[in-house]
Design brief:
alpha/beta, Rossmann fold, about 15% strand, globular
Length: about 240
C-alpha cells in the first residue's frame, strides 16, 4: 500500500486531496498543526492524524520519527500554506510590504517545504516509488506575472507570489538532486478556500485534481515539472 503524508490536510485542498487518495487506496496521514481539527478530519476521512507544524523543527522531527516507526513514506504532498492578508482581509500591496511581510509567509510556504522535505527525505529515498508534490500557484510564474494577458498579472502582492516562485525553484533543484524521486510543483487554480477568503472561482474538487494526479505518478512519471490540470506552465 502507498503511504502518503499531506501537510495542512485538515481542510480545503489538503482535505480533498486526502479524501481522493484514501479512495484510491493510499494510507494517508493528515498533517495538521491543530490536533483537534486534525483528529476530526482524519476520522471523517478514514486516515491517520499526524500532528505537524511545518514552521517548527521539533514538531517536524517528531512527525518524521512517528512515520518511520509506522513503516515509512512513499508520497509527500507539501500543501500547507498561507497567503498573508492585511487587517481588512486585503492583500498587502507593494507599498506596504516589509521584510517582515515576506518573512511571515516564507516561514510557512518556503522554509516549511524545505523543513518537511528534509526531514522526510530519508524515508522517501527508501521507497520504491517516491513522490513529492509541492503545491505552488499560477502566481509563481515569472512569465505569467510579467504578461498583461495573464490572469494573475494584476495581483498586487509581493510576498505570496515570491514565496511560491521560491517553491518552484526548490522543486527544480530537488528533482535534479534526487532523480530517483518524482518531484513536481502544481498549480491547483484559483480555488475557493480559507486561504483566499473563499473568493476562488472553482471548487476544492476541481483544485485537487492536479494534486491527486501528480501524487499518483509512477516511477517513470514526470519530474521537475510545473503543471496545472491542462499541462505545463511557463516558469
Amino acid at each position: 500500500m502507498t503511504t502518503t503524508l499531506i501537510t495542512g490536510a485538515n481542510k480545503g485542498l489538503g482535505f480533498e486531496t486526502a479524501r481522493r487518495l484514501v479512495a484510491a487506496g493510499h494510507s494517508v496521514y493528515v498533517g495538521s498543526r491543530d490536533p483537534g481539527r486534525g483528529r476530526r478530519a482524519a476520522e471523517e476521512l478514514g486516515a491517520r492524524l499526524l500532528v505537524l507544524d511545518v514552521t517548527d523543527d521539533a514538531s517536524v522531527a517528531a512527525a518524521a520519527r512517528t512515520v518511520e516507526a509506522d513503516g515509512g513514506l512513499d508520497v509527500l504532498v507539501n500543501n500547507a500554506g498561507v497567503e498573508g492578508r492585511g487587517e481588512a482581509n486585503g492583500i498587502v500591496g507593494a507599498a506596504d510590504t516589509t521584510a517582515d511581510t515576506l518573512r511571515d509567509l516564507f516561514e510557512t510556504n518556503v522554509f516549511g517545504v524545505v523543513r518537511v522535505t528534509h526531514a522526510f527525505l530519508p524515508l522517501l529515498r527508501r521507497s520504491t516509488a517516491p513522490v513529492v508534490v509541492n503545491v505552488s500557484s499560477g502566481l509563481a510564474s515569472l512569465g505569467g506575472m510579467s504578461d498583461p494577458a495573464s490572469p494573475g498579472h494584476f495581483y498586487p502582492g509581493i510576498a505570496y507570489p515570491a514565496s511560491k516562485t521560491a517553491v518552484n525553484m526548490i522543486t527544480v533543484q530537488y528533482a535534479k538532486a534526487f532523480p530517483e524521486l518524482r518531484v513536481n510543483a502544481v498549480e491547483p487554480g484559483f480555488t475557493a478556500t480559507d486561504l483566499n477568503g473563499n473568493t476562488g472561482v472553482q471548487s476544492v474538487q476541481q483544485g485537487a485534481e492536479i494534486i491527486v494526479r501528480m501524487a499518483r505518478v509512477g516511477r517513470d512519471g514526470p519530474t521537475g515539472r510545473y503543471v496545472d490540470a491542462q499541462g505545463s506552465l511557463p516558469w
